[in-house]
Write a structure and sequence with these properties.
This protein is α+β, with helices and mostly antiparallel strands and 80 residues long. It has two helices and three strands. The longest helix has 16 residues.
Length: 80
């Protein structure tokens, strides 16, 4: 079963990469953007058929390795 994890910086955490992306887009003429926040996207194929268990496995991965819970949030999405 494929599960996606989206990891983003918490709102109060400075996002220098997002700021550079925003400035670059503005310089390219995309001047209607208020803010850009960048993050990480993982698509994980879990050897589990039960959606609830698969989600728990990926949540465990996020909390132990994929996300830095001090500065990042994560959201789990079932993709298949």
């Amino acid at each position: 079963m494929k599960i996606s994890a989206i990891i983003t910086l918490k709102k109060d955490v400075l996002d220098p990469q997002g700021k550079v992306i925003h400035q670059t887009l503005d310089g390219m003429g995309f001047d209607s953007i208020n803010e850009v926040r960048q993050g990480k996207y993982f698509e994980i194929d879990v050897k589990e058929n039960d959606p609830k268990k698969a989600k728990e496995i990926v949540e465990n991965m996020c909390s132990k390795l994929l996300a830095n819970l001090v500065i990042e949030n994560y959201k789990i999405i079932k993709t298949q």
